[in-house]
Design a protein that fits this description.
Chain lengths: 281, 179
């Protein structure tokens, strides 16, 4: 059965999601935040986490974006193969949603039209769009605006198969240590292991949209997530990088088959304002 | 502490101090710094007075009606490292941002009896509430990156590099490192 969806529906939802996600952090993030504020060992760290919790309250109640860097809009669409899109180009509809959301929602326009010429596009478009065709007759929309303080500290490593799990651990730890205070800790660390160069990076990005506090399905991945969270917090970087026991709030790892000759790993670091929201239409 | 920060005031500050700033400061990011440096190299007049200036590295979100400014947290200071030593040598006394600086910047802080403060990254809504006035004074075409003059009241910052050579980003994490 083919279901028709007007692309205007996509625009409307993306607009609403861009606004909502920049003013209110999701419940999973608030929960780990609150937990960290109670367990942090450093007095300065506790003070910082307290300010960040106050910041979330002010943002929501007074409609001020949580962070002034309202990000580049990363959009994931999982499109059911029984969906027939009507009403115009899907890509245009996504960008129109971002445009309306960022202009009408008083969000910062942080996108330049060219990496070297650098003219601000003044409406935060284009979005970064990732689409996937899946079974079904609905569309899952995920919006995850990404700030660049932390994006700039992200890394891709092309390890050798012989580097194995120890090489992976070393890579994650070294990316986080290099990021230090620049990435606005406490961070959420998204990791992609396997695939190709670009697949690893995309997995790391999408890992950031997974509910924090949940674990991967495979046992070794689940163990890796737990071990890395503990090790990252033992680095001592702490909230705002001013020392402490809360450097990361979560480590989310995605994996994929890879080539006999390779072990790609990407570490996408996100600040404590890990914005992600999803809807199914 | 009342702005402007002078060398006298900077000398009293030590890493780890929580300071609440009140008064006027400038706001500028990399694109504005780049233009300032071009004017300096051409020996032209600057749109801001650098003597005892405090520069906040920040690009706000748009203000809603009736408010001076939108969300207003610090941006990563290292992107200004290329420019900061020159500005400090020309009179700038305080920088507000987040993250590590190069040794050239830290040496310029010591040499000029200046200070580098961190504001809490990602606390843009909370910091916005401490800004009572904001005015674009140069480079309006840069949008969020224009140079502004803002008035702050009890604006919370932490001394992360002082003129005595202290660097909190180096020393503080060591105390909690447990690998």
């Amino acid at each position: 059965m083919i279901r028709e969806i007007d692309t205007a529906e996509v625009t409307k939802n993306i607009k609403e999601m861009c606004i909502s996600v920049n003013y209110q952090l999701s419940d999973d993030m608030k929960k780990v935040f609150h937990h960290a504020a109670q367990t942090e060992a450093s007095p300065i760290g506790r003070k910082v986490l307290g300010q960040l919790e106050d910041n979330l309250t002010i943002a929501k109640e007074q409609m001020i974006p949580i962070c002034q860097d309202t990000g580049m809009a990363v959009v994931f669409l999982e499109i059911g193969q029984d969906v027939h899109l009507t009403g115009g180009s899907l890509e245009d509809a996504v960008n129109e949603g971002v445009r309306q959301g960022y202009v009408e929602g008083f969000l910062r326009k942080s996108v330049v039209s060219d990496p070297i010429e650098r003219f601000n596009t003044k409406d935060n478009t284009p979005a970064i769009l990732h689409t996937r065709i899946v079974p079904g007759e609905s569309i899952r929309i995920k919006v995850a605006p990404k700030g660049f303080g932390s994006e700039n500290m992200s890394k891709v490593y092309m390890l050798k198969p012989a580097d194995g799990i120890e090489g992976v651990k070393k890579a994650i730890l070294s990316a986080v240590e290099d990021a230090g205070p620049n990435a606005c800790p406490p961070m959420v660390v998204g990791v992609g292991i396997g695939g190709t160069f670009e697949k690893a990076a995309l997995m790391a990005k999408e890992a950031l949209t997974r509910e924090v506090g949940t674990s991967a399905e495979k046992q070794w991945v689940k163990d890796l997530e737990a071990e890395m969270l503990q090790k990252i917090n033992a680095l001592g970087i702490g909230p705002a990088g001013l020392g402490g026991t809360t450097t990361a709030l979560a480590v989310n790892v995605n994996t994929y088959p890879t080539h006999i000759a390779g072990l790609p790993i990407a570490v996408n670091i996100c600040c404590h304002v890990n914005r992600h929201i999803q809807r199914v239409i | 502490m009342e702005l402007p920060i002078t060398a006298e005031k900077a000398k009293k500050l030590h890493i780890g101090d929580f300071v609440y700033l009140t008064g006027e400061m400038y706001v500028a990011r990399d694109a504005a710094h780049k233009r300032l440096m071009e004017l300096i190299s051409e020996e032209k007049e600057l749109p801001i007075d650098l003597k005892d200036a405090t520069i906040y590295y920040m690009g706000p979100s748009p203000a809603r009606e009736g408010r001076p400014i939108g969300s207003a947290g610090p941006t990563t200071a290292s992107r200004m490292d290329k420019y900061a030593p020159t500005l400090l040598d020309l009179g700038e006394k305080a920088m507000i941002g987040k993250g590590k600086r190069t040794s050239e910047v830290l040496e310029a802080v010591v040499r000029n009896e200046a200070v580098y403060f961190a504001a809490i990254g990602g606390a843009g809504a909370l910091l916005s509430k401490c800004i009572t006035e904001s005015q674009i004074i140069a480079y309006e075409d840069l949008g969020a990156e224009a140079i502004r003059k803002i008035t702050v009241e009890n604006f919370p910052v932490i001394v992360v590099a002082d003129c005595h050579g202290g660097n909190l980003y180096e020393t503080a994490p060591k105390e909690y490192r447990n690998l």
